[in-house]
Amino acid sequence: MTSVQHPNLTEASSVIRVAIVCGPETTVLADSLEALLADAKGFTSSRFEYRDQSGLKPKAASFGDADVIVAALDSFQATKMELCFAPLQRAFPHRPVLVTTTDPDTFDFFRVLEMGASDFLLPPLRRSEVLPRLMRQARVTRRGDALVQKLKENIGLKQIIGESPEFLDRVRCVPRFARCDATVLISGESGTGKELFARAIHYLSPRADRPFVPVNCGALPENLVESEIFGHKRGAFTGARIAKRHGISSFGTTDLPRPLGAFQKK
Prior knowledge:
CATH class of the largest domain: Alpha Beta
Helix content: 25-40%
Strand order of the largest sheet: 3-2-1-4-5-6
Strand content: 15-25%
Order of helices and strands: EHEEEHEHEHHHHEHEH
Distance between the termini: 54 Å
CATH topology of the largest domain: Rossmann fold
């Protein structure tokens, strides 16, 4: 299969082009994603069908270049997933791949991230969750330039020093976690480098162009911590005359060092 030709990475586009890849068992899930994108402004989609025997084929005769790939998969089988990812990477080199599935309860999302997926979407697919993730992935500098990605990883991780196998295993997880949009909890004793790990994850993530905000929760009153980070509703506490829909957690990456007593009480 020949590779799809992509535009220069610096070119701006007002429309995010999404390639939806599905198999015979996941057409309904792909249909729902296609309908969701059809109703959204600034998105266009192309449909591809994957079969074990014939590989990856476009559903329509003509299709545009893709900025983001969404693979609709069924139950997790490691060998089957690897066979599916191989033609995806050949057809869309250096493009982020998001994964969704018809069987989220048994699907091994962590293993799929190890195979090269950038993020995952849990069904039912909701507009408020899907569109922001697609937009973030489309803004990411394409990972095809190995030198650029290696440089980012070196810069992001060069201050993390350690030699034990367990420690190095955690370091290797950082680029993998940085790709996805899931919340990351880093635990450890004081002085073990939790903030360094948090900064590395932020720098390698699609949020790298936004602020990294470390917050010392112990220096702030409980109500103020929750309000400033997560926002609040009108009347939630004395003096809350207006609602604050978004806190600093919506701006970029928020690092919450210990103590976290305000949240442990909930």
